[in-house]
Amino acid sequence: MFALWRCVIPACIFVVPSGFKADADAVGPNFSDKLVVEHAEILLPASSNDTFLEGFLVIWNGTGESTRITEIRSDVFSKIELVQTVRTRSGLRTDVQASLLVPAHAELLMRPGGVYLLIDPGSKPPRVGGQVNMEIFYADGASETIVAQVSAAGTVLEDHHHGMPPTKPL
């Protein structure tokens, strides 16, 4: 059996024992041994006064090595920053991160109020229902292009865990 541990902050990392293998005929999770971006979504701001978009990724690292996201770029956006919300004695603050860790055999689940992408849309923001190509760069020099769905503010993000079917939270 496997255990999933949920962090207190909305950005969670789920740790799975390295020896876990799912039987192809069994009902349950199917854990890949690769680094996989399973979901990417960009939320437009609720108000026209808000100038930034927020992006959320679900990344599974089934490899035996931790990795770091060092940069995310898109031809559509002026700038994409990796942001983490930090709780302090005086409240919450957001810190721009130079990189984000994706531990081995774990899932990075970006959420509002936790770890997320802060996106400067530039002069022409995308439209609801559209898609945006983004390129993710990793510390080892590898990169991959992903497609993010563009959704309206207030859209409920999928509650996704690797190998399990996506669900909407209650």
Explain how this protein is built.
The chain has one domain: PCu(A)C copper chaperone (Immunoglobulin-like), CATH 2.60.40. It has no helices and 11 strands. The N terminus is likely disordered.
- Contiguous low-pLDDT stretches (5 residues minimum) are 1-28
The CATH topology name reads Immunoglobulin-like
Rg for CA atoms:
16 Å
| Count of structural domains | 1
Q: How do the strands and helices of this protein lay out in sequence?
A:
Elements lengths: L11 E4 L19 E9 L9 E9 L5 E7 L5 E10 L2 E7 L2 E3 L3 E4 L5 E6 L10 E8 L4 E9 L19
Parallel strand pairs: 2-11
Antiparallel strand pairs: 1-8, 2-3, 3-8, 3-9, 4-7, 4-10, 5-6, 5-9, 10-11
Task: Quickly describe the structure.
It comes from Jiella pacifica. The chain is mainly β and 170 residues long.
Key phrases:
170 residues, disordered N terminus, eleven-stranded mixed beta sheet, Immunoglobulin-like, mainly beta, 0% helix
